[in-house]
Every structure is written in C-alpha cells, then in structure tokens.
Amino acid sequence: MTTPTVDVHAHILLPEVEALVADHPGLAEARALDARRNGPAALAVNGPMVRERIPKLTDVTVRLAAMDAQGVDVQLVSPSPSHYHYWADEETAEKVYRLADEATAAHCAQAPQRLHGLGLVPLQHPELAVHALEHALEQGLLGVEISSHTPGRELSDPAYEPFWSRAAATGALLFLHPFGCTLDERLDRWYLSNTVGQPTENAVALSHLIFSGVLDRHPGLKLIAAHGGGYLPTHIGRSDHAWQARSDAGAGCAHLPSSYLKRLYFDSLVHDPHVLRALIAAAGADRVLLGSDFPFDMGTEDPVGALRAARLPDADFHAVRGGNAAALLRLT
User: Fold this and answer.
1) pLDDT per residue of the chain (332 residues) written in tens, 0 to 9
2) Are 173 and 226 in contact (CB under 8 A)?
3) Rounded Cα distance, 101 and 74, in Å
4) Dihedral over Cα of 210, 211, 213, 214: its sign
5) Strand order, beta sheet including 6-12
6) CATH node for 6-328
C-alpha cells in the first residue's frame, strides 16, 4: 500500500464562531489591534483574498476537489487562527472552543478517511486548557491548535504545566500556529506582519518551550510547529552558543537547544528548497511534515511540487510527503 500524502497545515473557517462573538466589545478592540499591526494596505488585500476562498474553507466537496488537484490524500484541518479570540472572557472563551471543536469535527466527519481535525484552547485562561483539550478529543479531534503567546503570558508560563502534562499523557497533537506579532506597527507595511511576523513568533514561542525546560519536563509532547518553525531551526547555532556561554541562557534546559529540534515536528512550508533542506538537516527528515497553509495566499497550491523542488533522497521525500504524518496521525 502506498503511503498517503498528508497535509498537516490546512484551515477551516467557522462562521458560527464569528457569529457567536460578533456583538462582543472585546472583538472590536482585538480587530483594531489587528488593523494596526497589519496596516491598511494589507487589510485591503486580505478581505477579498479570504472571501474568494470561503468555498474551500467551508465546503467539504470543494475542499476534497482541491485536495485531489493537489495530489493530497489526507488533511489535518485546523481552525483559522482568526478564531482564537484570546481577548474573550472565561464564559465566552468556553463557548468559542466548544463551538469550534464541534463545527470542525462535523466538517471532518463528512469525509472521515480524508479529513482529521484539531480544536482550540483558550490560552488566556490556563485553568480551562485541560478541559478544552479533553473536549476536543471527545469530539474525535486529534488535538488542538495554539498560538505563540497570549496577552501577558508566554508558553513557558508555569500555569500551562497541567496542559502540557495532559497533552503528553493523551498523545494529543499540538499545532503551534501564531496569530499576530507583538512587533506591532513596525510590521505594518508590505505585509511584514506575516512575512516577518509569523516566523518571528514561531522562533520566540519555540525558544520559550526549549529554554524554560517544558520539553525536558514533558518529553512526550507531540508538537508541530507551522511555517517550518520560523527562524529558529536554521539559526539555532546562536541559541546553542548562548546556552554554552552564558549562565542565564543555560539555566532552564538540560541539553543543547539544537537537540530539542529532534523532539519537535515542523511543517514544510518555508517557500524555499534551500531552507527546507536546512530544516531537515537541523531537525531530521523524520521530523518534517508536508504543510500547505490551505487555502490561503501565503501557502502553496502545490505542496508536493514544493517538496520535490528540494531534491531530497527518495526515502526523505516520501517520509515528509506522508510517511511521518501517517505515523503521527496513526493513519496506518
């Protein structure tokens, strides 16, 4: 049997979640911050871009046809990060994650051999995180999607320890996908909010997990970093040097920072075959998974072709194309 081609970075849009929060004053404030971070030129492009992709983001038949055209057999479907709503109060946050979980599960249930889903966790309320993870798993989802931080709290915060522990114990998948960069208006032109902001946020979040010892305390975590882990995997030498040269950098984790890359997973969405080869050299061919960011414009419409452009050895190509993800998602 041929290993399926598996895309671990694909999104769903959930109108019911947006309807739920539509009249909340916190939403207006969050959107104002998002507008400042992106700038008017980016927002003028984003609206039409998303609108023309709504069928792919909401209609299973359209999604499957697009997958067929790409040569993708299986997608791991995660909510659009715009649904995080980390501004929400506890009551609203619980409604958001429950609705998102149930809607994503219902979408995937229409093609259960081809679509597997992830839910959401309200990171702004750490006390809800374990309950949210359990709810996602109860819906038949494989885990949850999380951002790189929440206002006032990094992923290294001790408040998340029960969440990491439960995720490791259940074998749940965690998909680290940033939404919004705290460099704010410095990135408000030329879509720097995404092109620079996303890989920066990935690098910061992963550094918090590594240097704080989260990965030492929870070695069983199954965490997939979007966008190839951002800048960190290809610049990890600087982290290694700091860990060796400075007592403050080396105090929190037991091993060389680069060694933790082999405990994480990364999608292949780096838009450059040279960078993809460097990512594989840093993390290992068994730690990289095909990712497209379906169906957004910062993704790739031909993820297999993008992988082929890296000219990997056959075994590595097929591992990244689907073998690694098939094992991680327990498809075989």
Assistant:
1) 689 999 999 999 999 999 999 989 899 999 999 999 999 999 999 999 999 999 999 999 999 999 999 999 999 999 999 999 999 999 999 999 999 999 999 999 999 999 999 999 999 999 999 999 999 999 999 999 999 999 999 999 999 999 999 999 999 999 999 999 999 999 999 999 999 999 999 999 999 999 999 999 999 999 999 999 999 999 999 999 999 999 999 999 999 999 999 999 999 999 999 999 999 999 999 999 999 999 999 999 999 999 999 999 999 999 999 999 999 999 97
2) no
3) 19
4) negative
5) 6-12, 74-79, 115-117
6) 3.20.20.140
